[in-house]
Amino acid sequence: xxxxxxxxxxxxxxxxxxxxxxxxxxxxxxxxxxxxxxxxxxxxxxxxxxxxxxxxxxxxxxxxxxxxxxxxxxxxxxxxxxxxxxxxxxxxxxxxxxxxxxxxxxxxxxxxxxxxxxxxxxxxxxxxxxxxxxxxxxxxxxxxxxxxxxxxxxxxxxxxxxxxxxxxxxxxxxxxxxxxxxxxxxxxxxxxxxxxxxxxxxxxxxxxxxxxxxxxxxxxxxxxxxxxxxxxxxxxxxxxxxxxxxxxxxxxxxxxxxxxxxxxxxxxxxxxxxxxxxxxxxxxxxxxxxxxxxxxxxxxxxxxxxxxxxxxxxxxxxxxxxxxxxxxxxxxxxxxxxxxxxxxxxxxxxxxxxxxxxxxxxxxxxxxxxxxxxxxxxxxxxxxxx
Length: 386
Description:
The chain is of the alpha/beta class. It folds into 3 domains: 2-121, STAS domain (Transcription Regulator spoIIAA, 2-Layer Sandwich); 125-153; 162-384, no CATH class. It is 75% helix and 8% strand. The protein has helices spanning 2-10, 41-54, 71-86, 98-123, 128-159, 163-176, 181-203, 212-250, 253-259, 264-302, 307-317, 320-346, 352-384, and strands spanning 19-23, 27-36, 58-69, 91-94. The longest helix is centred in the middle third of the chain and has 39 residues, at 212-250. It is elongated, with a radius of gyration of 30 Å. The model is unreliable at 4-12 (pLDDT under 50).
């Protein structure tokens, strides 16, 4: 390694602890040496960036003096070669030991598989029926894969919990639960006002405006409180989960965790799922209270219903079954939101544009699943008389 650096310095070429260059008439020779390992990734990125700036023709990477390399170092080397290719230059690798080349070959094979799959999709005719069937098949396949992935994650987390996982769960519980209380209560309060106004406009014609209280209390406690809290959390926390994990994927922080021997699923995904399953039932209680407060504001202030009458009608029209009917749904809603948000975040691969699409997809799919689940619960409750 020292001889290569001294020779490069004697020829006036660029040299540093990880590579040296030699400019030949037909190519730029880059001699790789030293340890190309994860702990030196920032230095390797900087050194390889200088190669890109110096290259103006064919680049030949010679790896005879390479001491050590891991998957992170191989990725830096491959990524730099791909960037040269995108600018119209050619490159090749020479002198790899078999033990070192296996890391680079793994990345090359993975990239080739992705490109081949993309080429096959591009060559296939886009017949409408075939395209529809393929789309349905992809949705079903993704649903099965997502379900299996989340199930495996939950099994790992419950089997091997860690202190770091508990600390991250508490952090996510504060961000997704405590910080969401004001907005959830505000929306529920306003919806309570809307329900009271709309109900009063119809029931006053029959002289039954006192039953506005019954309508508001039943609607809020059984349906609207849980549904509004879940939709607000889907828009707020579901998008945050997808965006934060997607950004970590783009910045290769998740890959770095894997190289260091950490489990990204246990450290990043499961704490968010557990935190939301705990937070959403509590948020539903706040939403119920705010919705009833909004209804009380209108019925007491505008419909000549006294506070005592309001309390009596609420206690007479709703019981513990109504309260439980709304609360039982919330862990399911929370699981759907967290699972979809984290899954879409971990599926980000290529660009910031994909990050935005996955975040949007997470929010839309979460809300659709919440409404479908709510319809399912309502049907079941009706069938069993709950």
